[in-house]
Specification:
The structure holds 2 protein chains of 2 kinds. In chain A, about 0% of the residues lie in helices and about 50% in strands. By secondary structure, chain A is mainly beta. Chain A has no helices and 12 strands. In chain A, a hairpin with a 2-residue loop joins strand 7 and strand 8. Chain A has strands spanning about 5, 10-15, 20, 25, 30-40, 45-50, 55-60, 60-65, 75, 85-95, 100-105, 105-110. In chain A, strands 2, 5, 6, 10, 11 and 12 form a 6-stranded mixed β-sheet that branches. In chain A, strands 3-9-8-7 form a 4-stranded antiparallel β-sheet, with no helix packed on it. Helix content of chain B is about 0%, strand content about 55%. Chain B is mainly β. Chain B has strands at about 5, 10-15, 20-25, 30-40, 45-50, 55-60, 65-75, 75-80, 90-95, 105, 110-115. Chain B has no helices and 11 strands.
């Protein structure tokens, strides 16, 4: 079945450091891929998405590229800020179009000032 | 996007009792809501799809008689955990679908602890 694997946290970085959170997936068909972010005390928010191979999703300085050959969708940011501290979830939806989203376990990110 | 609230944010109940969790769409009339469960350091697992005016659709392995879902209006869905046991302790999250595949908005979650 479909699944998502992302690096375990917590990840602790200093402000302005480069961030990579790895995500790989297993899926039949052609899934769409997402990154969600959950700030403390808030609900999950869609951060970015990519719907087909080689698409790059981007938002708020974060980027992720849909790599079909490596079944990956790694999240990157060139210079993190304290306000980026949150839990990040990689996710996919299968091609059945039934709105079901499969989530990774989440990676907690701490940014130190 | 839609603003989604959940109540309560945290609840403690005794084993054998039932507890109701509310999910409200504050600014959008939602025909479809989703209920997820999250164990510590685990993924969000979809439990069921809640459809306004009809029976919920449960995922495989989820006991529909234990997790009662009622989507009585376009702005409210409730999840009732019946005869709760300590293994039901978890973080329950709802989401609202406002349109296409990508348009899901999540509530802040409810932490249930069963003693």
């Amino acid at each position: 079945g479909n699944s998502v694997t992302q690096m375990e946290g917590p990840v602790t970085l200093s402000e302005e450091a480069f961030l990579t959170i790895n995500c790989t997936y297993t899926a039949t068909g052609y899934p769409s891929l997402f990154w969600y972010v959950q700030y403390p005390g808030e609900g999950l928010q869609l951060l970015l998405k990519a719907t087909k191979a080689d698409d790059k999703g981007s938002n708020k300085g974060f980027e992720a590229t849909y790599r079909k050959e490596t079944t990956s969708f790694h999240l990157e940011k060139g210079s993190v800020q304290v306000s980026d501290s949150a839990v990040y979830f990689c996710a996919l939806s299968d091609s059945a179009g039934d709105d079901k989203i499969i989530f990774g376990k989440g990676t907690r990110l701490h940014i130190l000032p | 996007g839609a603003v989604v609230s959940q109540h309560p944010s945290w609840v403690i109940c005794k084993s054998g009792t039932s507890v109701k969790i509310e999910c409200r769409s504050l600014d959008f009339q939602a025909t479809t809501m989703f209920w997820y469960r999250q164990f510590p350091k685990q993924s969000l697992m979809l439990m069921a799809t809640s459809n306004e005016g009809s029976k919920a659709t449960y995922e495989q392995g989820v006991e529909k008689d234990k997790f009662l879902i009622n989507h009585a209006s376009l702005t409210l869905s409730t999840l009732t955990v019946t005869s709760a046991h300590p293994e039901d302790s978890s973080f329950y999250i709802c989401s609202v679908r406002t349109g296409g595949l990508f348009e899901q908005y999540f509530g802040p979650g409810t932490r249930l602890t069963v003693t």
